[in-house]
Amino acid sequence: MSNARSKARRSAVQALYQWQMAGENISEIHDQFLVEREMAKVDLEYFKVLLHGVAGQLEALDQQIKPFLDRDINSVDPVERAILRMATFELVSRPDVPYRVVINEALESAKMFGADQSHKYVNGVLDKVAQQTRQLEIQRAPKK
């Protein structure tokens, strides 16, 4: 995937984190990021899709993630929660993005923003979400 899209994901994780913590309107956070952050090399359209997609489908996304968590979704670290929600949105709503790309990008975000071992937790959950949401794609994928 393009570097601009990777930057869109990183920015979306930060914006979703802020949204979860502050409870502000998602459109206000979106606008705030465009004004206050360095967004020149970000795929702005994809950033918007991720941000508004997660906010608009929050309950459905949480239901998708819930069976694979070892605790309540609200007890999951806020950074990990933002990453899980965003990646689940991509797995469910963006079949044009290969599942391996979604998971790899989520792991990079977890390594960048999360706690020391959070990428392992994120990987474990997203592998199971992918098995559920991208079954055919996974079956057709060449084995490593």
Structural description of this entry:
The structure is a single chain. This protein is an all-alpha fold and 144 residues long. It has one domain (3-134): N-utilizing Substance Protein B Homolog, Chain A, CATH 1.10.940. The chain is 73% helix and 0% strand. It contains eight helices and no strands. It has helices spanning 3-22, 26-36, 44-56, 58-65, 78-93, 99-113, 118-133, 135-140. The radius of gyration is 14 Å and the shape is globular. The mean pLDDT is 94.
- Secondary-structure element order, as H and E? HHHHHHHH
Count of distinct structural domains: 1
Kindly estimate the percentage of residues that lie in beta strands according to DSSP.
under 5%
CATH superfamily: NusB-like
Short description:
The protein is mainly α and 144 residues long. The chain has 8 helices and no strands. The two termini are 20 Å apart.
Topology:
Blueprint: H1 3-22, H2 26-36, H3 44-56, H4 58-65, H5 78-93, H6 99-113, H7 118-133, H8 135-140
Helix pairs in contact: 1-2, 1-3, 1-5, 3-5, 4-5, 5-6, 5-7, 6-7
Brief descriptors of the model:
144 residues, mainly alpha, N-utilizing Substance Protein B Homolog, Chain A, 8 helices, 0% strand, globular
